[in-house]
Amino acid sequence: MLSKHIDASKGVISAGVGWDVSKSRSITVSGSKEVPRGKHGTLTAFVKYSGKKFDVQAMLVPRGDKWISQRNKTAYKPIGVCFKYSER
Q1: Nearest to 47 by CA among 25, 21, 80, 77
Q2: How far apart are CA 33 and CA 16, in angstroms?
Q3: Cβ–Cβ < 8 Å for 71, 8
Q4: Peptide bond into 62 cis (omega under 30)
Q5: How far apart (Å, rounded) are the C-alpha atoms in residues 84 and 39?
Q6: Which among 16, 31, 57, 80 would be 20 to 30 A from 41, CA to CA?
Q7: What is the Cα–Cα distance from 87 to 76, expressed in whole angstroms?
Q8: Distance of CA 75 to CAs 16, 19, 32, 55, 57, Å?
Q9: Residues facing residue 51 across a β-bridge
Q10: Cβ atoms 8, 58 nearer than 8 A
Q11: What pairs with residue 68 in β-bridges?
Q12: Which long-range contacts (CB under 8 A, 24 or more apart) does 43-47 make?
């Protein structure tokens, strides 16, 4: 098995995928659900993501004569929240 670590700056990746990959994001959601008497309700939240694939290419330093790459990397951006309600 062969592997290679490639350092790519957050700025380069951000430019390639179209958003700031180092930026923190938060979302606030509120609401209510009426639960019948004698029942127990559970509301579970899940983050919904949008992903964008990218490739990284870098020149070996100090040689400068050989390119290495990593393909099909993915950066994920949170775009919303999904909820699942269950009742017992």
Answers
A1: 80
A2: 42
A3: no
A4: yes
A5: 16
A6: 80
A7: 32
A8: 10, 9, 33, 11, 16
A9: 76
A10: yes
A11: 58
A12: 43/83, 43/84, 43/85, 44/83, 44/84, 44/85, 44/86, 45/81, 45/82, 45/83, 46/81, 46/82, 46/83, 46/84, 47/78, 47/80, 47/81, 47/82
User: For the chain, how far is it from start to end, CA to CA, in angstroms?
Assistant: 50
Could you list the pLDDT tens digit for every one of the 88 residues in the chain?
Answer: 444 555 677 787 788 778 887 888 777 777 788 899 999 999 888 889 888 888 877 766 666 667 767 788 888 888 888 889 999 9
Q: Which residue has the tokens 């993915």?
A: 74
Residue carrying the six token digits 């949170």: 78
CA–CA separation, 77 vs 64, rounded Å? Answer: 33
- 60: tokens are 């070996």
